Structure formats: structure tokens, C-alpha cells
Amino acid sequence: MRDLPRSWISTTVSQVASIRPGKTPPKLEDRLESHSRDDRIIPFYKAGDLNLHPSELRESRLYVAEEELGSLGIHLIPAGAVVFPKAGGAIATDKKRIVKTPGGIDLNCMAVIPESISPEYLFWFFQSFRLSDIADGSVVPQIGKKKLSGLEIPVPPPNERCEIVRILDTQLARIDTVLRSVQGVRAKADQFRRSLLHAAFTGQLTQPEPSRGDALPEGWSSDSIGSVCQVVSGGTPKSGVERFWGGDVNWVTPDDLSKHTGRYISGGRRTLTREGLASCSAKVMPEGSVLFTSRAPIGYLAIATGEVCTNQGFKSLVPGPDLSPVFLYHQMHYLTPAIKHLATGTTFAEVNKKTVSGIAIAIPPTDEQDEIVRILDTQLARLDAAVAAADRVEVECGRLRRSLLQAAFTGDLTRKWRESRG
Fold it and tell me: Are strands 315-319 and 229-233 parallel, antiparallel or unpaired?
């Protein structure tokens, strides 16, 4: 820990708080039904309950009679304790909550109960780092009581602790307000995107008098994808055969598209040789083909800028002469939610070639397709710019939050406050 102000001390969590791990009695879930309305019941918090409130624990999905705590071996966690997940993947969520309604905690949780410092100061201290920073184990991360007990915590004088909490409460509440606005921007952007795509493929963007009901606009037709496109599956050569890899054949996987942000793609991280291509079911598709992932996950899209093939995670579309690749690309984005509902599979959802081929698409005249693409490109670019701005605000809020918390527990946040008091 860096040098602290002279009036501060550095101690350990065990010197200012007690640590209490949780416990889950057998068949606890069955006990609520046996209670009468007169029983005094209290919350029993599980790791999943940490999602119920942004910073507090007031209620849970499971309750137990207070009179049963002793017989069940459950410790009552008082108001003011800081609770967080202590094992497994839940640590990655980094959820920490202050208990407002006393209750029990299950074995996947840990409680730190303040004794000589305020709950709010302890809470913000735990917010200043990630739980993964104090977890041990790579396969199943675990936060141990011994390590937690010895964790260093800086402690200023009581009046300065109050000032730190006041500043953090005020400033971080403002940051949270901004983040809620960012979430609102994203929600409205998603809603507008869906509305815009719906309008595009029902004629409302380009028809002076859009059709009623399910009828197609005048001059439009409807056909199955398989009737107006060649639907192409992919394939993968044997990975251990060196001569199949590193050639001049561009090859794309869903993982390549997961890291790709543009509309167009020329190839993926790996390439095939001609021999590798011949050894598997992959097929070379021409420029303008619309690559569509059909599993793991469904719905990644890109347009090929040259000849390309894919692995078996795709059902790609080679559009006919009367179908614009960009128009098809936008319409596949519009249809993806419905396509996902047609998926089958237990390990992971997948749509097969027959399903994709049978999906109906709307086909306007080619000049109207171009006009729809023009409008969509303009409006979606504005929408993407708004979302990108929201993303930048969120990143900056995260940076500011980390900076405030770091400053709080090094003395920098209250330096001027100390100086003003001599």
C-alpha cells in the first residue's frame, strides 16, 4: 500500500470487522411452506439475490423462521454487513451489497461485519477493487477467510471517513445517474432499430400508401430464400494436417465474425490450401455473398468482398441477380429474431439448411431495394453514432469511478479537506 497521510493508519480487515462465511442447511427450500403466518421469518440470501438491488440486500427469494436459525446452524447477518459471492463464476460478477434487512447467507456467500468503522466506509472500500483480485484458484476461484482477514485497509480519522463517504455517495450517485441515461439511450436505440427495419421490409419507408395487414406493397413479391439465393453450408479440413492450412483460400468462422465490427469481410484469421478445401465440404462463394452464422451463435452477418468459404457454422446466401446483397444483409438482420425461434438442438441452438431455405423474404423492385438501403444506411449510421457516443460515456464513467475510489483510499480525495483544517 502506498504512503498514507500522517493521520491515517493501515490495518487489516480482521481488526475492523468480523468475517462470517455462509451455510446452506439441507432442504432449506422446503421450510417456508411449513411456517404459519405468525412466524417471524427472515431473508436467506443466496448469491443470486445479489442481483435484486443495485447496492442493498432488503429481500430474497427464500425465507426462514428466525427461531430456527440456531437449530439450522445459520448465523444472523446484521444490517450494515457487506455481503459478496465467495466462490466460482459468481466472483466475476463482482457484486457487493450492504445488508439492510438482517438475514442468513448461503455457503456461496461471505459477510464482512463492520465493528469499528461504518458500513458505508467498508462498502466503498470493497468497491475499490475487484473480488477476483483477492480470489485464489484458477479452475474454481475462491475467497478464503484467512486471506480476507489479512487484507490491508487504510483507516483515516472518523471525521475524515465521514467526508470520504459523503463525497463518494454524492459523486458516484451522479455517475450512476449518467449510466442509467446511457442504458436508456441503448434501449431506445434498440427499439428504433427494430422499428426502422420493420418499416423497411413492410414498405413503410418507401411506399406513399403502405399496404394494410399482411399484404405486400404494390410491386413487391415474396419468395423463399432458397428460391432466390443459393444456400451454402461450410466445412472444416482436419486440423492436424498441416498441408491443408495456410494457403490462398479465404476461410471464415463464427469466431472471426464475433470480433468483426464492419459490414464487409474479406477473410478470417486462418486460410486453407486448395488441397484443404478439396478435403472438406466447404465451398468457395463469390463476392457479394451474405455470410450468416447458423449456430454458436445464430445471426452474425457479413458481406464477402471477394471469394471466400466458411466452416460448418454458416448457412451463407449467394443472392440471385434481382437481389441486392446489402438489401439481403439488412433483411437477414431483420429476420434473425424469427429465425432463432426456428432453431433446434440441445447442446447449442442451430438452424439447418432446409429451415433457412424455406424462410420467406420480401423482394421489392431493384431500384426500391437501393432506396431502402440508402435510407437504412443513413438512419442506422446516425443510430450507431449515438450508441458509440453512449459507449464512450460509459467507458469514461468507469474510468472516473475507478479514479474516485482509488483516490478515496489513498488520501488524495480528501487532501484539500485536510489542508483546510490545518
Answer: antiparallel
Residue 37 pLDDT more than 90? Answer: no
β pairing state of 41-45 and 104-105: parallel
pLDDT at residue 140 greater than cutoff 70: yes
> What angle separates helix 366-408 from helix 325-341, to the nearest 10 degrees?
60
Pull the grid cell for residue 147.
486471506
Residue 404 CA from chain centroid, whole number = 24
What is the predicted pLDDT for the residue at 211? 65
Which amino acid is it at 360?
A
Which domains are present in the chain?
9-155 (3.90.220.20), 156-212+367-422 (1.10.287), 221-363 (3.90.220.20)
Residue 329 pLDDT > 90, yes or no? yes
Q: Write down the pLDDT at residue 26.
A: 65
d(CA 275, CA 61): 59
d(CA 205, CA 368): 10
The string of pLDDT tens digits covering residues 276-304 is 999 999 999 999 999 999 998 999 999 99
In terms of DSSP bridges, do strands 82-85 and 97-99 run parallel, antiparallel, or are they unpaired?
antiparallel
- The CA distance from 236 to 277, in Å, is 8
